[in-house]
Write a structure and sequence with these properties.
A seven-stranded parallel β-sheet has the order 3-2-1-4-5-6-11, with helices on both faces. The chain is an alpha/beta fold. The mean pLDDT is 97. It contains eleven helices and 13 strands. The termini are far apart. Helix content is 39%, strand content 17%. Bound molecules: nicotinamide-adenine-dinucleotide and uridine-5'-diphosphate. The site of nicotinamide-adenine-dinucleotide has 29 residues, from helix 1, strand 2, helix 5, strand 5 and strand 7.
Amino acid sequence: MEVPLCVLVTGGAGYIGSHTVLELLLDGYKTVVVDNLNNSSEIAIARVRQLAGDHAHNLSFYKMDIRDKPALEQLFASTKFDAVIHFAGLKAVGESVEKPLMYFDNNIIGTITLLEVMAAYGCNKLVFSSSATVYGWPKEVPCTEEFPLSAANPYGRTKLMIEDMCRDIFASNSDWKFILLRYFNPIGAHPSGLIGEDPHGIPNNLMPFIQQVAVGRQPALKVFGTDYSTKDGTGVRDYIHVVDLANGHIAALKKLFDPTIGCEVYNLGTGKGTSVLELVSAFEKASGKKIPLVKTGRRPGDAEIVYASTAKAERELNWKAEHGIEDMCRDQWIWACNNPYGYQTEKTQ
Ligand code: NAD
Ligand code: UDP
């Protein structure tokens, strides 16, 4: 019998990580999650186990900070990893502006520690969670992987620095294999309603905020800017169903074992732009809830229109997003109805 490949997933208890871990398990991979639970709950891991059914025995979880080098070394000494999918990181743009050092420490030092331990234990395949934020304020759309890169804030700078680190490491030693995935805007949840996004505090992103208005945790949605040069004046983004995104990681992981791969970048989006008002309207339809709106000025730093060119991922990863905005809103609503307070059982705020 063939021995299954073993994948280390950092940040695997988080939103995108938990959905990806489930798809890995269902695909037959042995999966080891490390997460410090800074922005997640171990309940997500228990729910993934439940959804994975017969495959659940292939999942191990360690509460661990990736900056804890001795702990990571111990893990690599006891388990041979064929590849790593690296989600662990802080991701709130506003917080990164207020606390840049915290972001450099967590995201940069964390990644350096991980790469050093991988190198020491002969594991040289990594999939990294980058972001469309590295396109800054794109001059045109759709964004292709060749667009010029820039950082609009410390969070974005950590993504760009890590991408650059991977490119430099590969340039110095072509045994490494890196796939840098630039996510557009993941939303939605697993259709079971068992796993989904559970932001701590007041959400910064559009969809989790809409969800909290719908379940009565927030009174109204502030629409940041109604004077953009877009179809209805509101900002346009490329929303992608988190399950499609998770499957993009499986495609990238398979690609890492292609002998021709070096250090490659792929956009993961749908290639379609949706405005704030269009997303609100689709969510209202899916949920039957009215979302009260307060139209306010632009949020500083926001881009006008961002959506992906998906051609490279389709061509080289043989992957394409399958779900539309209606599916994303439906699954978001199932998650919200089953877990109005996320993984917490009771209202604490
Ligand atoms: P998330 O916060 O739900 O998941 C990140 C996980 O990493 C959390 O479970 C957190 O506890 C863990 N973590 C953070 N620092 C850690 C550390 N030092 N050691 C161990 N664990 C640590 O976020 P997400 O939305 O699932 O995002 C996953 C990755 O994708 C992040 O790197 C994020 O920057 C990137 N990304 C997210 C989006 C998005 O819109 N959600 C878009 C582009 C890129
Ligand atoms: N947005 C909004 N109200 C909110 C949060 C976001 O109008 O409470 C808008 C924001 O200006 C942008 C879009 O929704 O045009 C997506 O914002 P999000 O923060 O989710 O993603 P990002 O801007 O990082 O791509």
